Every structure is written in C-alpha cells, then in structure tokens.
Amino acid sequence: MSASPSPGSIVLLIKLTRSVYRRASEDVLGLKLKAYMVLTNLREGGLPQQDLCASMQMDANNTVLLLNDLEGKGFVERRRDPADRRRHIVVITEAGQEALRHAERAMESLEEEVFGSLTAEDRAALRDLLSRAVAEEPADQAAA
Questions:
Q1: N or C: which end of the chain has fewer CB within 10 A?
Q2: Residue 76: beta bridge partners?
Q3: What is the pTM of this model?
C-alpha cells in the first residue's frame, strides 16, 4: 500500500492564507486585512501611490478605493509629490500609526494561534524563507 502524496507547498500556503483571512477579521484587527497591509507598507515612510499599488499587488482602481476608505478614516493622506505634481505620495497619519499598533498586537496573537505548534526557531526560519520567496518574485508577476 503506497502512502498518499502530501500536498505541495503552494496548497499548504493557500490553506494557511485562508485560515489567516478567516481569523484576521475587521473585528479582531480593528481594520480590514488589506488596510493593515497598506499601513504596514507605509510604516517606514510615504510611498508614491503607484509604488504602493505594486507592493500590494493590486490594480490602481482597487488601490484608489482602499485609499479613499483609509483617507476617510484619517489613517492616510495623499500628498502631491513636490518633484512631480502629477503623482501622489501616500503617508500614514498619527491615527493610522495608532490603528497599525492596535492591529499589530492583534496579529501577534493571531500568529501565536496559527503558528503555535512551531518553535521560535521554526517561525524565524519560515519568515526568512517566505521573505526570500517574496523578494525573488519576478517584477512582471508581482504587478499582475
């Protein structure tokens, strides 16, 4: 009797992603998961709106809708780029920083739930592997 094949890494990542999406609700984070990702991208400083689209792997229309919502809540501001007045730089506000801190505390608890069976070393190794895989993604695929 042969052992059944184990699921591939992509299948496991999809299952894990679905589990996280179910658990990382707006009630838990205080904001939507995509909004959390935007604020995380803006933590280190403002980004041109087009660069934010690319880093989020979202099309421009959906990014604008998301930014409209975040701007309406006072979490981000879109400012004209002084070097090119046609472009907007998206920056996180103090209210956005506070929302991000709250969401990060919730995400720490969620990570503990999801990765509870992994050691600290396992988690660090997984984070490193995922970071490398994301960093090595071809540029033309990232924007798709």
A1: N
A2: 92
A3: 0.81
Both tokens assigned to 103: 């969401």
- pLDDT tens digits, one per residue of 5-60: 788 889 999 999 999 999 999 999 999 999 999 999 999 999 999 999 998 889 99
Nearest of 53, 83, 81 to residue 67 by alpha carbon: 53
Question: To which residue do tokens 């880093």 refer?
Answer: 55
Which residues, including other chains, have CB under 8 Å from residue 99's CB and lie 6 or more apart?
30, 31, 39, 73, 75
94-136 confidence digits (pLDDT tens):
999 999 999 999 999 999 999 999 999 999 999 999 999 888 7
Please state the φ and ψ torsions of residue 11, each to the nearest 5 degrees. Answer: -60, -45
Q: Which residue has the tokens 């999406």?
A: 21
d(CA 117, CA 121): 12
Tell me phi and psi for residue 43, to 5 degrees: -55, -45
Residue 131 · residue 117 · CB < 8 Å: no
Q: Are 78 and 90 in contact (CB under 8 A)?
A: yes
